[in-house]
């Protein structure tokens, strides 16, 4: 096809013709008219690297963040993607985006490989006078160019470069400093493209011939094998050394299994809930609450992201969450955003990495690993929270322990808070969501230190008993044994479903999240895309109308050079929509017990010039349990 002159002539004519098309109409692709990427798209598997397609004089309009595809119940393909820029699509030389002019507009291409058979190959550089320096795989392709600040003209072409006459509607909307672009093949004009069958698809950004000088290079792609994009990452990146021809191969194949029989790019919903396995019980079996899961000998089940995360499947098989978010090492102080001060954690982190769980007769056991800033050698820079949903609720829950956190799609009944790892007076609380404000007493030492609580003691445990805790010191393991009486009672059935999560915030009330786990299937005005929740100090992941970036990774990543994702107190709210879900499992009737050894109490030091304080229940939350710190020395 590279020598096909008719294809070259067709491309020249048709793309010149496309420049005169009217702007796209408002789109009803997913039940909305505002360009929002809604829950019907599911949780896309196509997440592109951030800041890899911003080249000078483009105002970052070529930097693609994600890509979504969904075939709706009327047999129409809907595509959506996000670019890391709020600059008007058709702007040229006016204003600029954080120091970068808008001299070069950007076009967008979506190759469509019907049947996902990886053929034929499209050679967009086969027209010398036009010179698009990239190729892709597809039977058809969509090309969109800007016609207004928020509007685009899009056409569907076949592999010979002929306009099929299909009707495509398109729109875009700015959310915070990013633009969501959505388009629909409203009528495929008899091509059959709109059939609800598998396709390979992706999105490519490219220089617009109306502004740039031939040859015209691609800038970025989402849904392709390498290469993904240029090295452009700022207003001054010329990308000149990356101006090369690129062949993109579609690797994003849709499936109908993950969207109720409709083809889509989503991760699958978690329809099968796995039971905790635990260990077989012979007589009494103690669990040493020391922050160490003892190499699997205490009957814990490791909750990997891939096996236990919901509401969508996906993620990592060897960890409970992505490891390495930059938000885990930054927090902000100041009276407001204008007076913000960035603080970088030194040698410690609020990272969440692993979680283990076990259901016993008297107790619910949890062990979390990762954060070292809960006690960073004298400074307390993070608190650990573990939300627990034992009733399967879905209503809104807000502000546990006075933090800027809310939940959507699930409704935790309780939240465990670890304030500081070695302090018996302020080490933590078990909050019951809702209700009044009742403080429960704390005791200076564990009850029955070194003894066992076994099945015979269950009936005697009540709300005045202790939520037990222990840590593994430098190994950053934090372990809890929570009497079922504090959680409304032991599950009545081994099939009972329990949902839990974990997140960290800065030490004080009024802060949002450093990190949370798991990290699959959250964000985008519902459940529309995968997201890592840690964000920048002016950015929100809230589901509130009009609020937030609502796009993948850590929210807005450009603008003020001093800004970086982290935990901050500046008005925004983080919405957590993900959880680990499991059945209680057969070991719910296993006669397990708790062993407490080597108790050590420490006073919490003053941090950042603030006095040590006793954390009291806040914002109408009921502190429904007490915590005793029990530490085992190694």
Give the uncertain stretches in residue-range form. 1-33, 423-427, 435-452, 522-530, 543-554, 596-634
Main β-sheet: number of strands, strand sense, barrel status?
14 strands, mixed
Structural class: mainly beta
Computed over alpha carbons, the radius of gyration is 27 Å
What's the overall average pLDDT, rounded?
Answer: 73
Q: Compute the number of helices.
A: 2
Gross morphology: globular
Structural domains: how many: 2
Describe the structure in brief.
The chain has 634 residues and is mainly beta. The protein has helices at residues 5-18, 305-308, and strands at residues 46-47, 53-54, 64-71, 77-83, 106-114, 121-123, 134-137, 140-146, 152-158, 167-175, 178-187, 199-201, 203-207, 218-222, 232-233, 246-247, 285-288, 301-302, 309-310, 330-333, 341-344, 354-359, 363-369, 383-389, 397-398, 405-407, 414-418, 428-432, 452-453, 466-471, 477-483, 497-500, 502-505, 513-517, 574-576, 579-583, 592-595, 622-629. The strands form 8 sheets. Strands 18, 19, 22, 23, 24, 27, 28, 30, 31, 32, 33, 34, 36 and 38 form a 14-stranded mixed beta sheet that branches.
Task: Give a topology summary.
Layout: H1 5-18, E1 46-47, E2 53-54, E3 64-71, E4 77-83, E5 106-114, E6 121-123, E7 134-137, E8 140-146, E9 152-158, E10 167-175, E11 178-187, E12 199-201, E13 203-207, E14 218-222, E15 232-233, E16 246-247, E17 285-288, E18 301-302, H2 305-308, E19 309-310, E20 330-333, E21 341-344, E22 354-359, E23 363-369, E24 383-389, E25 397-398, E26 405-407, E27 414-418, E28 428-432, E29 452-453, E30 466-471, E31 477-483, E32 497-500, E33 502-505, E34 513-517, E35 574-576, E36 579-583, E37 592-595, E38 622-629
């Amino acid at each position: 096809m590279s020598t096909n002159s008719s294809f070259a002539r067709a491309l020249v004519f048709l793309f010149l013709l496309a420049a005169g098309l009217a702007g796209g109409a408002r789109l009803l692709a997913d039940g909305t008219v505002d360009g929002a990427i809604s829950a019907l798209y599911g949780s896309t598997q196509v997440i592109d690297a951030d800041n890899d397609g911003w080249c000078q004089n483009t105002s970052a309009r070529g930097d693609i963040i994600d890509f979504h595809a969904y075939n709706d119940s009327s047999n129409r393909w809907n595509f959506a993607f996000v670019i890391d820029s709020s600059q008007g699509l058709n702007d040229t030389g006016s204003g600029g985006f954080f120091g970068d002019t808008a001299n070069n507009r950007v076009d967008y291409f979506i190759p469509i490989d019907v049947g996902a058979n990886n053929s034929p190959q499209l050679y967009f550089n086969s027209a010398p006078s036009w010179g698009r320096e990239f190729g892709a795989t597809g039977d058809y392709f969509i090309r969109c160019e800007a016609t207004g600040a928020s509007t685009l003209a899009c056409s569907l072409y076949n592999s010979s470069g002929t306009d099929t006459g299909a009707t495509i509607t398109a729109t875009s909307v700015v959310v915070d400093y990013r633009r969501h672009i959505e388009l629909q093949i409203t009528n495929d004009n008899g091509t059959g493209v709109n059939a609800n069958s598998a396709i390979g698809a992706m999105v490519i950004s490219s220089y617009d011939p109306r502004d740039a000088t031939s040859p015209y290079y691609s800038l970025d792609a989402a849904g392709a094998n390498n290469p993904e994009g240029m090295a452009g990452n700022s207003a001054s990146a010329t990308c000149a050394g990356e101006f090369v021809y690129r062949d993109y191969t579609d690797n994003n194949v849709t499936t109908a299994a993950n969207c109720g029989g409709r083809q889509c790019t989503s991760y699958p919903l978690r329809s099968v809930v796995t039971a905790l396995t635990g260990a077989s019980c012979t007589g009494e079996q103690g669990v040493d609450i020391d922050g160490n899961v003892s190499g699997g000998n205490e009957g814990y089940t490791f909750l990997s992201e891939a096996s236990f995360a919901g509401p969508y499947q996906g993620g990592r098989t060897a960890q409970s969450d992505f490891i390495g978010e930059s938000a885990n090492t930054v927090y902000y102080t100041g009276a407001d955003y204008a007076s913000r001060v960035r603080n970088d954690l030194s040698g410690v982190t609020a990272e969440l990495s692993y979680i283990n769980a076990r259901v016993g007769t008297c107790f619910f056991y949890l062990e979390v690993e990762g954060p070292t800033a809960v006690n960073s050698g004298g400074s307390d820079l993070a608190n650990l929270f573990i939300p627990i949903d034992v009733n399967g609720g879905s209503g809104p829950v807000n502000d546990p322990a006075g933090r800027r956190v809310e939940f959507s799609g699930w409704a935790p009944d309780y939240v465990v808070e670890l304030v500081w790892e070695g302090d018996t007076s302020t080490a933590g609380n078990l909050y019951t969501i809702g209700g009044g404000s009742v403080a429960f007493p704390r005791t200076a030492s564990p009850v029955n230190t070194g003894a066992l609580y076994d099945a015979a003691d269950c009936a005697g445990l009540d709300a005045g008993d202790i939520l037990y805790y222990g840590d593994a010191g430098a190994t950053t393991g934090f372990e809890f044994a929570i009497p079922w009486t504090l959680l409304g009672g032991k599950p009545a059935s081994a099939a009972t479903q329990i949902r839990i999560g974990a997140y960290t915030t800065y030490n004080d009330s009024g802060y949002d999240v450093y990190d949370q786990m798991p990290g699959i299937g959250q964000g985008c005005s519902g459940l529309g895309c995968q997201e890592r929740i840690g964000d920048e100090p002016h950015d929100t992941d809230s589901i509130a109308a009009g609020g937030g970036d609502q796009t993948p990774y850590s929210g807005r990543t450009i603008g003020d050079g001093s800004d970086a994702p982290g935990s901050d107190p500046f008005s925004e709210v983080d919405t957590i929509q993900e959880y680990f879900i499991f059945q209680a499992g057969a070991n719910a009737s296993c006669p397990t017990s708790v062993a407490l050894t080597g108790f050590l109490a420490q006073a919490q030091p003053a941090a950042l010039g603030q006095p040590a304080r006793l954390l009291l229940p806040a914002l109408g939350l009921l502190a429904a349990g007490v915590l005793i710190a029990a530490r085992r020395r190694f």
